[in-house]
Recover the amino acids of this structure.
């Protein structure tokens, strides 16, 4: 088995969600606000009590210490948090030097004070922070919400490249139909307690 | 030198000062009269009663009476720790963790000071044990409640930060690191400040009392140093235990942050 597999997962209003996210592919999730998209991601990261079973490459979530699971199935929340004064302190040692040019940020950003970052810059850095942990699956909660059109497309392209190259199973919460069209190999919409396939389901 | 006993009617003279303050407060509408009078009455009654209890206790010196009084003091302190937290753990956990932390730290340190350092005969002689335990519990109570209050309040306000740290694969201990440090600092600050100011800004109450009772200042000072050291040690270990147990309880077996375990008091 590859990627991220959900079996009858129940959390909040969602009941018995079963879904497979293959490695290297993006599955998009949409739905009205409050429908439980973020809670589903939180359940996948094991931050919230939930029913059902979740597997990563065949390994059950419960067979792994929670922090190791979260180091492999990394969630990037809609509003990322920064708790040290300096940007660089949030990154593993070498990640600061290998800052991808696609982020559109100068290498000096690692020495900046966090308070100086705009919300868009925080969002881009949060994505790089998650990737620098070398995860096996990504849970993205509206990763481009604070970015302008131009930057959104650049970040999408960079993320897709990383996802393909690293074979990451990715669940991506999105609103914009055009974005979903561009990135998703499958798209589900939350309808009440269930996920409805919009396209690309298997 | 024999200490001068105070006649009750002389205390009434001191109470007149409070009365004068109450009247002034009432006339100038400062709104403190009521609580001032209630607190004054409480302190007179409570201290008079504990005086009677201690007289009886000193006369009997039986271990189980001393143990009973110590237990009552501990339980009252445990209740006070719960009351002083603006957010506390649900159910019996708040009382259990606070009381447990105070029990482990202040009883251990008091017994150690009695048996190893002071060495009265028997070691639980109430003239030494009860005042020492009282001072330990009073200070540990402050430290433990400040530390727990800060822990719960910070976790509540920094939920997003703690959870984001968990999302990045940190253990609950790592995710709580900064908050735990803040909570410890907040619990220890009163003791550290008291030690820093002792003798220069303030003459601590116990030493003052001993000197009034006729002890040579050199002896009183040694007791005061002992008491300050064990109070700080007891408060520190108490806060450490409380923060460690309290922090553990804020996460479940899958290291999820469980704010539903907190309630506002």
């Amino acid at each position: 088995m590859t990627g991220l597999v959900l079996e009858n997962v129940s959390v909040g209003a969602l009941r018995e969600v079963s879904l497979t996210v293959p490695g290297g592919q993006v599955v998009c999730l949409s739905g009205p606000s409050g429908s439980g998209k973020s809670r589903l991601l939180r359940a996948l990261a094991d931050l919230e009590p939930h029913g059902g079973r979740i597997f990563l490459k065949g390994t059950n979530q419960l067979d792994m210490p929670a922090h190791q699971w979260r180091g492999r199935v990394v969630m990037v929340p809609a509003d990322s948090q920064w708790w040290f004064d300096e940007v660089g302190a949030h990154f593993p040692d070498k990640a600061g030097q290998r800052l991808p040019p696609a982020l559109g940020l100068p290498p000096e950003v690692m020495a900046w004070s966090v308070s100086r970052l705009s919300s868009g810059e925080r969002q881009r850095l949060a994505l790089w922070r998650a990737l620098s942990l070398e995860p096996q699956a990504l849970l993205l909660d509206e990763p481009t919400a604070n970015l302008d059109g131009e930057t959104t497309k650049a970040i999408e392209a960079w993320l897709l490249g990383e996802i393909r190259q690293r074979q990451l199973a990715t669940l991506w919460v999105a609103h914009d139909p055009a974005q979903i069209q561009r990135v998703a190999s499958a798209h589900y919409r939350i309808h009440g307690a269930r996920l409805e396939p919009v396209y690309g389901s298997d | 030198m024999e200490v001068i006993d105070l006649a009750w009617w002389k205390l009434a003279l001191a109470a007149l000062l409070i009365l004068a303050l109450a009247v002034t407060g009432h006339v100038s509408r400062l709104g403190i009269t009521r609580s001032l009078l209630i607190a004054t009455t409480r302190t007179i009654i409570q201290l008079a009663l504990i005086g009677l209890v201690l007289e009886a206790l000193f006369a009997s010196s039986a271990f189980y009476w001393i143990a009973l009084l110590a237990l009552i003091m501990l339980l009252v302190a445990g209740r006070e720790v719960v009351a002083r937290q603006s957010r506390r753990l649900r159910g019996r956990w708040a009382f259990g963790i606070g009381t447990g932390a105070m029990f482990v730290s202040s009883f251990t340190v008091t017994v150690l000071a009695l048996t190893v350092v002071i060495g009265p005969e028997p070691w639980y002689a109430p003239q030494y044990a009860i005042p020492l335990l009282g001072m330990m519990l009073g200070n540990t109570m402050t430290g433990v409640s400040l530390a727990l209050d800060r822990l719960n309040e910070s976790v509540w306000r920094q939920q997003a930060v703690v959870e984001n740290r968990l999302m990045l694969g940190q253990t609950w201990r790592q995710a709580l690191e900064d908050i735990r440090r803040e909570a410890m600092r907040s619990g220890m600050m009163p003791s550290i400040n008291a030690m820093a100011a002792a003798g220069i800004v303030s003459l601590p109450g116990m030493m003052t009392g001993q000197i009034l009772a006729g002890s040579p200042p050199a002896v009183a000072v040694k007791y005061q140093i002992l008491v300050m050291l064990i109070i700080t040690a007891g408060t520190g270990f108490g806060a450490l235990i409380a923060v460690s147990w309290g922090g553990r309880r804020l996460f479940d077996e899958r290291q999820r942050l469980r704010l539903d375990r907190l309630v506002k008091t």
Summary: Chain B is about 75% helix and 0% strand. The two ends of chain B are 51 Å apart (CA to CA).
